[in-house]
Design goal:
Number of domains: 1
CATH architecture: Beta Barrel
Number of strands: 8
Order of helices and strands: EEEEEEEE
Radius of gyration: 18 Å
Largest sheet: 5 strands, mixed, barrel
CATH topology: OB fold (Dihydrolipoamide Acetyltransferase, E2P)
Structural class: mainly beta
Bound molecules: zinc ion
Strand order of the largest sheet: 4-5-6-8-7
Shape: globular
Distance between the termini: 33 Å
């Protein structure tokens, strides 16, 4: 879950936090808790200048339903175009695939009943 700020005056959502709304210049915000979004793009960084250890790092952009795009680390299994769960880890936002467990929609399909 991440916290997105929504302007109290015009409803514009921003991430990360800003002191002034870029749409209406208001300074009053409310916080919305966001659990997921849509992975729009992803790429793998294999080389970094000045870093000897080469550990691939997958990063991507996730579009929130409120509008902002968040740059995240992307864990294995998250596919472009799919919904991903968002969490903070060591100060960074991480996207992981949402559970693909099927929903139980029919009465009697639960083995406990
Ligand atoms: Zn505003």
């Amino acid at each position: 879950m991440i916290e997105v700020c929504v302007c109290e005056r015009c409803g514009h959502a921003v991430y990360p936090f800003r002191h002034v709304c870029p749409e209406c210049a208001a300074r009053a915000w409310r916080v919305e808790h966001v659990d997921d979004g849509t992975l729009e793009q992803a790429t793998t960084i294999r080389h970094r200048i000045g870093v000897e250890r080469r550990v691939p790092n997958r990063v991507g952009s996730v579009r929130l339903d409120l509008g902002p795009v968040v740059i995240t680390r992307v864990l294995d299994g998250a596919e472009v175009g799919a919904r991903v769960a968002l969490a903070k880890s060591a100060g960074a936002v991480v996207a992981r695939p949402l559970s693909t467990r099927p929903l139980r929609t029919c009465r009697g399909s639960d083995p406990r009943t």
